[in-house]
Amino acid sequence: MAGYDVIFHFLGTGLIEVIRLVPICVVLSLIAGALIGIVQTVRIPVVNQLISVYLVFMRGVPPLLLLLVVFFVAGFESARLSAVFTLSIYHAAYIAEIFRGGIQAIPLGQFEAADTLALRFHRKMIDVIIPQVWRAILPALTGQYIILIKDTALVSAIGVMEILYNARQAMQVVYKPILIYAIVGLLFYILCFSLERLSAYFERHLQTMQGVQ
What is the pLDDT of residues 130-168, one digit of tens each? Predict the structure, then answer.
């Protein structure tokens, strides 16, 4: 059992860092992505062109490259802030497209019904459209956030002490690469599987609410 306590100490510390990073990135990317997705449906020419440039840029740049550029250029106080900012703006681009597709998939009659109630735009979105969009986009959101969890492995490149970074540190003390990386893979699998199960629970809950209505 020699060395196992070292391995679990390092990987446990890295896991805690991932658990700290992911919820913040999820919330920030969800807010930004939802707002961008909604604005896209309004069709404001100049704004939509700027959004298109942002979306194309984010989809065309590798996240690791973006992470390094932000870290060395943006001047954030810590590597963790650079990681949060980069992962949030990167995944917000994909979340925005998911929201835009979800909104456009809503039948036109729902928009017309909201218009007959003389609802303001924000009330129409919050009270009528977005609740229906959630049911349509939840599986896609889950898939995107599983990718986000995996992308946290990239932040080790700028010195954030997440699982992969600490795995390399553990190997400096206990040279058992196969065991260490197997545990790393298992930890990522547990995180992704847990998110998938949580999503399935909320999906069933939304279907139940829809059935009651």
Answer: 878 888 898 899 999 999 999 999 999 998 889 999 999
State how far the Cα of 208 lies from the Cα of 176, in Å rounded to an integer. Answer: 48
CATH class for domain 4-212? Answer: mainly alpha
- The DSSP result for the chain, as a single string, is -TTHHHHHHHHHHHHHHHHHHHHHHHHHHHHHHHHHHHHHHH--HHHHHHHHHHHHHHHHS-HHHHHHHIIIII--SSHHHHHHHHHHHHHHHHHHHHHHHHHHTS-HHHHHHHHHTT--HHHHIIIIIHHHHHHHHHHHHHHHHHHHHHHGGGGGGGT--SHHHHHHHHHHHS--HHHHHHHHHHHHHHHHHHHHHHHHHHHHHHHHHHHH-
Q: What is the mean pLDDT of residues 24-33?
A: 96
Q: Are 33 and 189 in contact (CB under 8 A)?
A: no
Calculate the average pLDDT of the chain: 88
Q: Report the Cα 40 to chain-centroid distance in Å.
A: 20
> 181 vs 110, which has greater pLDDT?
181
Count other Cβ atoms within 10 Å, centred on residue 162.
24
The domain spans of the chain are 4-212
What tens digit of pLDDT does each residue of 57-110 get? 999 999 999 999 999 998 888 999 999 999 999 999 999 999 999 888 887 777
